[in-house]
Design a protein that fits this description.
The protein is α+β, with helices and mostly antiparallel strands. The protein contains three helices and 14 strands. A hairpin with a 5-residue loop joins strand 10 and strand 11. Bound molecules: 2-oxoglutaric acid (AKG) and fe (ii) ion (FE2). 2-oxoglutaric acid binds next to strand 7, strand 13 and strand 14.
Length: 203
């Protein structure tokens, strides 16, 4: 159920066990959100994502980009990428996210979903380049989309709607025990930009 009237308590854990997920609701107002949304759509070097799945190279409809404070390399789904230096807007968003979440981050993976038909399949973000049990902060701009967690053993599910300008923080052992996905939907026609701030271990 979607609760419109209740303020979100960022200290509340959305997960019942085996991890910690905090939804801060909207941390950017309408004006800030539309500024960042347009800036990111226009200024980020978006590319289609390539992945190797069951030995086959696939190219996703969604676009991705990877930014960081240093040209870190990062490998996931068997593809290695090199980070682009922060833009001014990304740096401003990162500062606010660090203030709100009380954690620091040194890189950001960005995803552009052109419409509801694009999503992201079940996965967890526990790649070896990432700091073990480091916090991952997810910021969303544009279309509001549902985001789902599924426990790896019990299969219990938890859903949250990610609003325009919102912040969701995943921490502790979340990535070890829970998968997450952005389900595709035929009901949403407008784009969404998602930023996940992460900590890469220094190479
Ligand atoms: O778009 C989203 O909300 C999720 C993105 C995500 O899970 C990821 O980049 O690892
Ligand atoms: Fe993820």
């Amino acid at each position: 159920m979607k609760l419109f009237d209740e303020p979100f308590d960022p200290n509340k854990n959305l997960l019942p066990y085996d991890g910690q997920v905090q939804y801060h609701g909207r941390i950017f107002n309408d004006e800030q959100s539309s500024y960042f949304y347009n800036n990111l759509l226009n200024k980020i070097e978006w590319e289609h994502d390539k992945a190797i799945i069951f030995g086959k190279e696939i190219i996703t409809k969604r676009k991705v980009a990877w930014y960081a404070q240093k040209p870190f390399s990062y490998t996931y789904s068997k593809v290695t990428k090199y980070a682009t230096p922060w833009t001014a807007a990304l740096q401003r968003i990162k500062e606010e996210v660090e203030r709100k979440s009380g954690e620091t981050y040194n890189s950001c993976l960005l995803n552009l979903y052109h419409s509801g038909e694009e999503g992201m399949a079940w996965h967890s973000d526990g790649e070896k380049d990432l700091k073990k049990n480091g916090a991952i902060a997810s910021v969303s701009f544009g279309a509001e989309r549902k985001f789902t967690f599924k426990h790896k053993d019990s299969k219990e599910k938890v859903e949250v709607w990610l609003e325009n300008g919102s912040l969701l923080v995943m921490k502790g052992t979340t990535q070890n025990h829970w998968l997450h996905r952005l389900p595709p939907t035929k009901k949403i026609f407008s784009p969404r930009v998602n930023l996940t701030f992460r900590t890469i271990v220094d190479q």
